[in-house]
Amino acid sequence: MPPAKKDVRPKRARTPAYVKNLRGVKTWKEATNWLEWRGIEDIECITPDQAGIARGKMMPSKKFTSNTSLALPSAVFMATISGGYPENGNGFHYPEDDGDLKLLPDLSTLTVVPWEEDPTAAVICDLVHQDGRSVEFTPRNVLKRVLAAYDKRGLKPVVAPEIEFYLVRKNPDPDYPLTPPVGRSGRAIGGGAGYSIAGVNEFDELIDDIYHFSESQGLEIDTLIHEEGAGQLEINLRHGDPVELADQVFMFKRTIREAALKHDTYATFMAKPIQGQPGSAMHIHQSIIDKKTGRNIFSNEDGSESDAFFHFIGGMQRHVPNALVMLAPYVNSYRRLTQAASAPVNNKWGYDNRTTAFRVPRSDPAARRVENRIPSSDANPYLALAASLACGLLGMLDKTEAEPAVVTAANEDQIDLPRGLLEAVDLFETDNRLTEVLGQSFAATFTAIKRAEFETFMEVISPWEREYLLLNV
C-alpha cells in the first residue's frame, strides 16, 4: 500500500479572534488589522458634546492608523443646543487662547457604522489638553472623574439604563405639532398601549433594523417594549460599567434615529414631544460593588439592607434636586416633570413603588439596586450617570440618613423638584459638595450654557401666547 501523501498546500493564517470582535480592540496594531479585515474605508472619530451630540472628524482609515494627531476647538464643548455661545460671567470664562483639544481614540469602542453605504467605522474619543491633561469639562471625562472618586475608595458602580423614545411622523416645519406615526395597519398609532405586543408589531421592520444595526455594532439590547404613549418605545440595556453603558446609550441614540429615518420616520428623545402624551425617561438602575470582595455593598452578609444602601438613597434625596439640571437639561424637560405626566415629581423612595423618584425593585440581595426614575431621555447619558452616582457617593461619604420608605402613591403631594430650568441652574450652583465632585470647570461651563439656552428660548413666541393673549389682553 503506497504511503499517504503529505498535504503540501500552504496553510491559511488563522484569523485572530479580536479581528472578529464586533466591538473594540486593545492596540493600534489590532485596530489596523480589524479595519483591513473589514475593508473599512472611512472612520468617524466622535465624542459627545454637552448635549450628547456626536462631534468629531471623519477621515480615511489609513490616515487614522498613521499616528495622525486629531483635535477639536474647545469652543465645541461650550456651545448651546441651538449653536450659540454663552457670555462670560458667573464663574464662566472662555480660555484666553481658545486652543484646540486633542482627541484620544478609545480603541475599545471601535465598531462599524452599519447604516453607511461605504464601509465605515466609528470610535469614541476622550479629550485632553495639548500637554496631556484631561479636559475637566467634557462629558465623558466628567463621568470618569466621578468613577475615579469611587475607585479611590475601592468601589465600582454598576448601572443599567432604560431609554424611552417616540417614533413620530416626519415634521420638517417646527411650527407644527408632532403627530404619531402610521404603522403597518395603515392607521395612526394611539396611546394606552403599554407592553402591547401588537403595538411593537406595528413597527416590525423598523425594529428589525434597530436590532440589526445594534448587533452589527456589538450593542446588547436586553428587552424592547411599547410604552404608554402613542408610538412610544423603551429599550432596556444590560447592566455593566458606567462608561461602557453611557457609550452604548450614546451610540444607541444615533442607531435608533438612523433606523427610523430609513423608514421615513423620526425617532425623538425629547422629554415631552407630544402634548397630552406621557413624557420619555431614562431610568438608571444603580448598585455598588466592593472591588476586593466582588460583593454588592447594598446588602449585608445576612441579605439585609446595609447602611451604605440607606446612605446612598439619602444622598440621592439630598442632592438630586440640586443636580436636576443635569438630569432634565432643557426647558422641554420640565413639561415632563408635572403631576399629569406620569413622571415622579417628588424626592421620595420606596420598595417597588413606581410613583417615587427612587425605586428599589424586587430582587435577591446580590442584585439589590436603586432605580433613579427622574432623568429624562433628553439628558446626556454621561452627565446623567455622573450626576446620579455623585449624589449617591456623597450620601455614603456623609452618612446621609434616608427618609422612611413610602408605601403609598407619592405623586399626589406638592412637587418637590425645581419647576423650571433657571431654578434648577441656581440650585446646582449652590451645592458646593456636588460641584466639587463633578469639577468646578464643568459646573461653570454647563450652567453658562443652560442660561444661554434659556435666553434663546425666551425669544420664541409660543402658540399658547398667541391663543390666550393675542385678543384678550
Automatic annotation (TrEMBL):
<comment type="function">
    <text>Catalyzes the ATP-dependent biosynthesis of glutamine from glutamate and ammonia.</text>
</comment>
<dbReference type="GO" id="GO:0004356">
    <property type="term" value="F:glutamine synthetase activity"/>
</dbReference>
<feature type="domain" description="GS beta-grasp">
    <location>
        <begin position="41"/>
        <end position="132"/>
    </location>
</feature>
<comment type="similarity">
    <text>Belongs to the glutamine synthetase family.</text>
</comment>
<dbReference type="InterPro" id="IPR008147">
    <property type="entry name" value="Gln_synt_N"/>
</dbReference>
<keyword id="KW-0067">ATP-binding</keyword>
<dbReference type="InterPro" id="IPR014746">
    <property type="entry name" value="Gln_synth/guanido_kin_cat_dom"/>
</dbReference>
<dbReference type="GO" id="GO:0006542">
    <property type="term" value="P:glutamine biosynthetic process"/>
</dbReference>
<keyword id="KW-0436">Ligase</keyword>
<dbReference type="InterPro" id="IPR036651">
    <property type="entry name" value="Gln_synt_N_sf"/>
</dbReference>
<keyword id="KW-0460">Magnesium</keyword>
<keyword id="KW-0535">Nitrogen fixation</keyword>
<dbReference type="Pfam" id="PF00120">
    <property type="entry name" value="Gln-synt_C"/>
</dbReference>
<keyword id="KW-0547">Nucleotide-binding</keyword>
<dbReference type="InterPro" id="IPR008146">
    <property type="entry name" value="Gln_synth_cat_dom"/>
</dbReference>
<dbReference type="GO" id="GO:0006598">
    <property type="term" value="P:polyamine catabolic process"/>
</dbReference>
<dbReference type="GO" id="GO:0005524">
    <property type="term" value="F:ATP binding"/>
</dbReference>
<dbReference type="InterPro" id="IPR027303">
    <property type="entry name" value="Gln_synth_gly_rich_site"/>
</dbReference>
<feature type="domain" description="GS catalytic">
    <location>
        <begin position="139"/>
        <end position="473"/>
    </location>
</feature>
<protein>
    <submittedName>
        <fullName>Glutamine synthetase</fullName>
    </submittedName>
</protein>
